[in-house]
Design brief:
Layout lengths: L3 H19 L7 E9 L3 E11 L5 E12 L5 E4 L9 H9 L7 H13 L1 H11 L5 H12 L15 E3 L23 E5 L6 E5 L4 E4 L3 H13 L4 E3 L4 E4 L1
Parallel strand pairs: 6-9, 8-10
Antiparallel strand pairs: 1-2, 2-3, 3-4, 4-5, 6-7
């Protein structure tokens, strides 16, 4: 069972990686987690991105959601727009779980069958799907009367879920743990316009910690963001390998 903390850690690591991938020299992008909710399929984590303007002040850029499955821990990016916020659920049930979801044809035919009987269901089905032959329509209603699941007549739900490339959860970041724990207040994350990435910077000596292994760097930055380490825009720190 994937816990809330495990889900947040995985998504934070992904958004940290995305910040590094999407940023360009002179245009750093900051991706921040907004909220998490317990959905019937898993943890649903929403996030937003901030991009710099001409005067180098960050503004809201985009938004999105990740679904972290309870059992497997798989992470899916949820596509779509706010007005269609829940339309990914049919995609999940039909395509990923392989379960039957009634389409509008089945819903209407079942309602007609319940109210007016077999002939009413046949008339409603033929009205909605005139390309069905009489034989096909009768077979469809036979399945309904038997309490079965008829073949789907509507197109499959639009694909809204994309399986995200998983990060290596075994990456060892213990050597940097003080940066978001005991020494958290001594560090900040510099969104540098020269390099276009988030860099951990020590407030005491002004030196940035350059972590050569990208997976380790992504995990470290994710932990720092989760711990509330400040992000400073247009910072120009000195650098030191870490």
């Amino acid at each position: 069972m994937t816990t809330r903390e495990q889900a947040l850690a995985a998504v934070d690591a992904l958004t940290a990686r995305d910040s590094r991938r999407w940023s360009r020299p002179g245009a750093p992008i900051s991706v921040e987690r907004h909220e998490v909710e317990q959905h019937r399929f898993g943890w649903l984590v929403s996030y937003g991105s901030h991009v710099p303007t001409d005067d180098r002040s960050p503004v809201a850029g985009g938004f999105g959601k990740y679904l972290v499955e309870y059992g497997s821990g798989r992470i899916f990016h949820v596509g779509g727009v706010p007005s269609m916020a829940d339309d990914w659920e049919d995609d999940y049930v039909v395509r990923l779980q392989g379960r039957h979801v009634p389409d509008e044809f089945e819903t209407a035919a079942r309602a007609a069958l319940a109210v007016g009987g077999r002939m009413a269901a046949l008339r409603e089905l033929r009205r909605m799907a005139p390309r069905l032959t009489i034989t096909e329509a009768k077979s469809y209603v036979d399945v309904l009367e038997a309490g079965g699941e008829p073949p789907r007549l509507a197109p499959l739900p639009e694909r809204r879920l994309l399986l995200v490339e998983p990060l290596n959860s075994d990456v060892d970041v213990s050597g940097h743990e003080e940066m978001w724990t005991t020494e958290r207040d001594d560090w900040y994350l510099a969104a540098t316009y020269a390099g276009g990435v988030l860099l951990p910077v020590n407030r005491v000596d002004g030196m940035a910690c350059l972590i050569c292994d990208e997976e380790v760097a992504d995990r470290v930055i994710a932990h720092m963001l989760r711990a509330g380490v400040e992000v400073v825009y247009d910072a120009r720190p000195h650098t030191a390998d870490g």
